[in-house]
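Lab notebook, design round three. We kept the backbone fixed and only want residue identities now. Task for the bench partner: fill in a sequence for the structure below.
Input structure tokens:
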């Protein structure tokens, strides 16, 4: 089945961009109007994040989000046959902010959020990084599709570590210099170890793992946000969170990250993955195990 799926997707990737986006627009109608994929979750999240906006404004953001969601699928197909030259025109960045640390003696952690298009982001980082780029990999259930995606994600020599092995086997995959990319707005696997931080004026749980790893390894920590000059084109913007995370009070690194994440979302609300439950957990001020970062 692998060769069947790969051949089909490769054929689709050769179609003109405009035609693929037209196909995507058709899928948008199905996903939003017919299936209504996680629409209640999306609108609930937008109400929490933007209570000051009207219902019509939030619906407009939701519709734009679904367009972005479908665009990501179409653009991921395009990546299968896209040349390096075409990719370089589609994804640009201020990678000099990252690469200035190559001779610093320190490694780098890159914290980001669920921004579109994450496949373009991962490849864009790997393409320009002087550091070996390390990504955490979640396998797909369909083994043929998983094989296709794994090959695509390793295109620019990314070191992919299965999420299930990351904590215990990082050293087996990585030696020497590295840039570790982390989507740091994941819901915590262990709520008892989470940092509780105000996010869009509502206290929510953030995983503490990225900060603990940065402090343990004394890495430079950068944040990356995404801008879209036009459809299908992405600009990756690196900015510093901390060069010395050990010097910050516990939780401060995550607090700075959350502030940058929120600002990036406010700058472009539809470019964030609103279909996952960001406010899944409720803060309880009387629970001593919940560590509030103020």
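Proposed sequence:
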């Amino acid at each position: 089945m692998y060769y069947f799926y790969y051949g089909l997707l490769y054929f689709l990737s050769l179609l003109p961009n405009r035609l693929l986006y037209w196909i995507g627009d058709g899928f948008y109608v199905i996903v939003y109007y017919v299936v209504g994929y996680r629409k209640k979750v999306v609108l609930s999240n937008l109400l929490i994040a933007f209570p000051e906006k009207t219902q019509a404004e939030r619906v407009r953001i939701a519709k734009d989000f679904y367009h972005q969601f479908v665009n990501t699928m179409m653009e991921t197909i395009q990546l299968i046959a896209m040349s390096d030259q075409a990719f370089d025109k589609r994804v640009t960045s201020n990678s000099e902010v990252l690469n200035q640390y190559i001779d610093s003696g320190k490694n780098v952690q890159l914290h980001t959020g669920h921004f579109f298009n994450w496949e373009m982001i991962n490849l864009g980082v790997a393409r320009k990084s002087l550091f070996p780029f390390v990504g955490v990999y979640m396998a797909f259930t369909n083994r043929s599709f998983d094989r296709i995606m794994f090959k695509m994600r390793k295109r620019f020599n990314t070191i992919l570590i299965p999420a299930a092995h990351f904590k215990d086997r990082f050293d087996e995959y990585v030696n020497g210099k590295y840039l570790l990319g982390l989507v740091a707005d994941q819901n915590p696997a262990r709520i008892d170890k989470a940092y509780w931080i105000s996010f869009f004026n509502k206290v929510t749980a953030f995983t503490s793992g990225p900060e603990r790893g940065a402090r343990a390894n004394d890495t430079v920590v950068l944040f990356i946000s995404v801008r879209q000059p036009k459809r299908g084109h992405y600009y990756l913007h690196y900015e510093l969170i901390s060069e010395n995370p050990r010097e910050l009070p516990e939780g401060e690194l995550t607090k700075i990250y959350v502030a940058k994440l929120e600002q990036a979302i406010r700058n472009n609300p539809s470019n964030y993955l609103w279909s996952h439950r960001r406010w899944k957990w409720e803060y309880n001020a009387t629970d001593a195990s919940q560590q509030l970062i103020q």
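Keep this in mind before ordering anything: The chain has eleven helices and ten strands.
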